[in-house]
Amino acid sequence: MDAIKQSVCVYQAILDDVDKNYSLRGGGGISRIVQNSTSTYSVHLLQEEREDVRTYEVKVAPNGTVTITGVTEKTISHSR
After folding, report:
1. What top-level branch of life does the organism fall under (predicted)?
2. Are 20 and 29 spatial neighbours (Cβ–Cβ below 8 Å)?
3. Rounded to an integer, what distance in angstroms lies between the CA atom of residue 65 and that of residue 44?
C-alpha cells in the first residue's frame, strides 16, 4: 500500500471516530488533522475560544485496515 492510500485509510478511520464519539457539534468543525509521527495523528476541533484536540494512536495492517489503539483529549484555550 502506498503512503497516500494509507493516509486516506487512517484519515477515514479517524473521521469516523470523531463522527461517532465527539459530541460537541457546535463551533467551527474540524480545522486540521496533523500526522505527528508514523502512528500518531491529532485532530483539531474548533469551539468558541478554544480548540479541542483528539490525539490518535493507530496501527495499519498491510491490507489497509486501521485499528485505533488509543485516543487522548486536551483543550487549548484561546481566550480574548
Report:
1. Bacteria
2. no
3. 23
> pTM for the complete prediction?
0.90
Q: Is the sign of the CA dihedral 51, 15, 18, 29 positive or negative?
A: positive
Mean pLDDT by 10 residues, the chain (80 residues): 92 97 88 96 94 97 94 90
Q: What 3-state class would DSSP assign to 35?
A: strand
> Where do the structural domains in the chain lie, given as residue ranges?
3-77
Inter-CA distances, 9 with 49, 63, 67, Å: 31, 10, 10
Q: Which CATH number fits domain 3-77: 3.10.450.630, 3.40.190.10, 3.40.710.10, 3.40.50.2000?
A: 3.10.450.630
- 78 exposure class (CB count in 10 Å sphere: 0-12, 13-18, 19+): exposed
Q: Which of 17, 11, 5 is nearest to 70 (CA)?
A: 17
